[in-house]
Write a structure and sequence with these properties.
The structure holds 3 protein chains of 3 kinds. By secondary structure, chain A is an alpha+beta fold. Chain A contains 19 helices and 16 strands. In chain A, strand 6 and strand 7 form a beta hairpin. Chain C is α/β, with parallel strands linked by helices. In chain C, strand 10 and strand 11 form a beta hairpin. Chain C is globular. The chains are: A alpha+beta, B mainly alpha, C alpha/beta. At the A-B interface, helix 1, helix 2, helix 4, helix 10 and helix 11 of A face helix 1, helix 3, helix 4, helix 5 and helix 6 of B. Chain A: Pfam families: BPD_transp_1 (PF00528), TM_PBP2_N (PF16296).
Chain lengths: ~525, ~300, ~425
Amino acid sequence: MLTSTTTRADARALDGRRARRTAETASLGWKLLLLKITVLGLLNAASVYAAMVLFFNERWLIGTLVVVTGALITWIYFQRGALPAKYLAPGVTFLLIFQVFVILYSGYVAFTNYGTGHNSTKEHAIHAIMLQTQDRVPDSPTYPLTVVERSGELAFAVTAQEGEVLVGSADAPLEAIDGALVEEGRIVDVPGHTVLSFTELMERQQELSTLAVPLDEDPNAGALRTQDGQRAYVYTSRFVYDESSDTMTNTESGETYTDGGEGAFVTESGEQLMPGWRVNVGLDNFVRAITEESIRGPLLYVTAWTFAFAFLSVASTFVLGLFLAIVFNDPRMRSRRYYRLVMILPYAFPGFLSALVWAGMMNQEFGFINSVLFGGAAIPWLSDPWLAKLSILIVNLWLGFPYMFLVCTGALQSIPEELTEAAQMDGARPFQAFRQIKFPLLLVSIAPLLISSFAFNFNNFNLVYMLTGGGPRDIEAGINVGSTDILISMVYKVAFVGAQSDYGLASAFSILIFFIVGTISVIAFRRTRALEELN
Amino acid sequence: MGESQPQRTSMSGRSFRRWFVQIGWRHLVGLAVVVFAAFPLVYVFSASLNPGGTLITANTLFGNLSLQSYVDLFNRPQQPFAAWYLNTLFIGFTASAGSVLLGALAAYAFSRMRFTGRRLGLIGIVLVQMFPQLLAMVAIFLLMLSIGEIFPAIGLNSQIGLIMVYLGGALGVNTYLMYGFFNTIPTSIDEAARIDGAGHARIFFTIILPLVSPILAVVALLSLVATLSEFVIASVLLRDPEKQTLAVGLYQFISQETSQNWSVFAAGAVLAAIIPVVLFLALQRYIVSGLVAGSVK
Amino acid sequence: MTVNTRRFTAMTAFLGAGALALTACGSGGESPGAASAEPTETADAAQTADAEASGSLTVWADANRAEVLADVATDFEADTGIAVEIVQQDFEEIRDQFVSQVPTGEGPDIAVGAHDWLGVLVDNGVVAPVELGDAAEDFEQIAVDAWTYEGQTYGLPYSIENIALLRNTELAPEAPADFEEMIEMGEEAGTEYPFLVGLDPNESDPYHLYPFQTSFGAPVFGTADDGSYDSTELAMGDAGGEDFAAWLAEQGEAGVLNLNIDGDLAQESFNDGSAPFFLTGPWNVTAAQEAGIDVAVDPIPAAGDQPAQPFAGVQGFFLSSQSENVLAASNFLVNYVGTAEVQTALYETGGRAPALSESFEEALGEDEIVAGFGEVGAEAVPMPAIPEMGAVWDDWGASQAAIIKGDGDPVELWQKMSEDIAAAID
């Protein structure tokens, strides 16, 4: 397989000597063991604790997962075999928790209606509807309020306009009471009741915020509620929720809304009551993703540009990065370190800033490029459909070449110089020697990075959105898609900028795009395997 | 770095031509690249010296030279720049070191061991990272929320928690990069050590790691830059201004409705860029020294 | 980590860019409001309570607001024993974070925001109405109107913001009567530009151009009986809109409206004296004054035959529907943040007209600039808050840009846009 590139006997002998020497000096065996026991001990303690908390909260599945993971890791490190697992376990654990979970979660979201209006649970939705449909009775007075308590039950004591004191609770409508003490407009004592202090109010604010005291026996007259514990107002509820039948009734129109199974209360005529809640909608999002009108129209065009953009971005950054890596890999050259230093700057700078600066420099009339470099020409860098494409590639080249430069420099270091020297001695010209000997070797280690770079650019939402916003847009198209939009930015517009956020739809798109990129990558990986075997 | 070569002044025309063909043209390329790479950044630097100015039209570079923006940067109680800087150093270096370690462990396994699922695993870790992260934040937030319920110290609003999230990406492309490099180290080295009785851990830590230091340096730098410019996750997970990172903090300067803070922002960005530059200087020896060639041969 | 970097930055961009886009049209988002003092009496009541109540409040605010609120929070805690934790957030991030975090139980009790977020917040069920009670009368009418959505008031307004015409008094001693006169005066001044407004090459800026649009009698939506928008009736496709489109094309050709001048460039040019007039908001005044420009604030000159009405944005504080501290939160809002003292303090840091009438009048009396904006704001209408506005701004801006550039027949483009918007809202 892929092992030594140098097979010369003297190299081997050197290796042997070196290894022997190192082996002699190091005997850290017991220290490592101690470290292992300590780390694993801590890990197990933590996982047992976490599992206990989880079980205590009846989260059985996750709790079990935690225990199993802890046990698995301990097992991996306390037995003789399974060497690969020992090396892979730490990274894979983090990968599973923070990356695989994210994908699975998005996969799950793709099957729900999560998005604006379907943002939370049914319980929350009902709560919000009830809150939002408490209508204050027009022109009703403000009631100065004192919250009182009788045998643990909260009650309102309010001063009516005529000055009399009324007391009522959830079950007992307001009634006048005699003998209450009023000081400076506030009720300070009510016979048979305890006046609650501010602290006590705060402790029971949940209870208080849901308390509605009927004005009188007629339920349509409304009820007193308070938000701050100091003033009460008369409200009528536009909606009544009936738990047993799980329906919402509009008290004004008498219409009944039922849970239609699609995450919202609906009338028979199909009118929805917002907010709704999250439910599973099966394949709906995928069906929509495929049939979505605003996607289907420009789909071919955008897909073609996405591939072109991703490919050209990788090709341009790689070619420039590799070229520079070679140019600066000559030890005879002076001052290389300074050149290199400047070259990593574009990469080191915060990306959002760079995009903004470039957008400014590309301003048609005032930007540096037109006004200084092109002597006042009015080249529409960002507002001509083709130039905008070119601009985006130029900026991406600027942003991306330092990465390729670093990576290629690193990889070039791994290729023994004498290979080229040998080839050159055999009469090969430098370029030939490079192309036939170093380049294939380089590709072995770089190819996966190129594939991944392709995948990254395929989804390079960042750049597109910051620099051109996908524009310039073809106004005639009637769809909000511009000439530099790639799939992911188009999806973003469809799922978020349109009417409302639709995480479910966006997730479905993410999954579909993932499959496209994944398939291409797997095919590409198969080809690199062929490369590897050259070796 | 290897320095050599003749003094230009004492060169004859012929040797100059030779010097130019071999070396000199490289300087021309270097100058061209320096201009290309640096000139947008010169703008930023110029803007940082021009308090109250904007960024977009700094066509007259360095028309104004004032350090006021740099001073302002450290005098905003609501925007503790110094704290952000330290946080960024801590988070950046920890996450970067962690990534290098986890990545190297995995790369070693993939390079030296043969096991079921090896090929699949290699492709898998890269594939996983190709998922378009349009929605990652919701999931990550919920995850950290649940972790925080059990271990508040590593949940929301915790820098350790943030570092853990970053470590989730420690495998992936970097592993591939290291894997390619590991493959160029002859297995004969491992074998010889093993014959001498060294265990796998010792071989890995004391023999292999030093040999692959160039790639470790590259990955460390890439990771650090990654952490430095990351701000979406950081802005959601870290809430207290004193806990935030540079990228999150700096973005506040310009994302406010009124874009009056361009200059201060630019000054902050210039200072922030010092971190990767210093790190690059420190690691450059490893990245480009040809160390491998020397030790493997 | 490399991939991560990129992935993260991608996300960043997406949220960040969203924020930027919002800044572009939303920054105008606040408009004139009024505020008045109401709370002293109740605050006293709270003060008498013993200062050891349990619980704590979490408030999300951006850096500017956080500073002022910190003082209020200290008072509140001293009076009530309830700790208030001010969490500093990026203003543009608050809406989305609020929507996604409230359902998890992690969201704040109170957050600061702009009224045009209401549609999204209400549709997601994350905000609770705030009962201002009689205090509502103490606020400027437009501020309360802006925070009212489908009949409910959802926030305690604190500042009103709208654009107006800034004039460099050295270059133009008099306020222009209408658009044509302004351009004439601008040309007479002999400066590089007669008039400046920040636009975007591909997205124009419907927010800043809206006063001109209304002066042709083409408001974005029709008005319902209660004075609020009727978002089912798109009004800008009418004849007035077509006139406005024709005007846009004319001005574009004449170079008066220049898409290549963005907000920053317009600001810089105005500050170095390259134009006598600048259509912008109060956020650019400080910089102009620091640059030594003697600034006057004038009404926006009409281009058509009706008054030029800008959009108003009203900032305010809103309550989470999942808050477990409703009582404490509404006390904090109505009785502390709603006081003239706090409203004035917020005005002093932010420079925007307070929403409480008492503070508003006070600020108006003290400061010509605020008075100027306030006067224009009296004509303003709240920005629409319906959740579909994102799509509307996009179509609106792109079409305006095309018209100004001269890409086709203005009236046809305008009609096409109206149809697209009407379809998007449905």
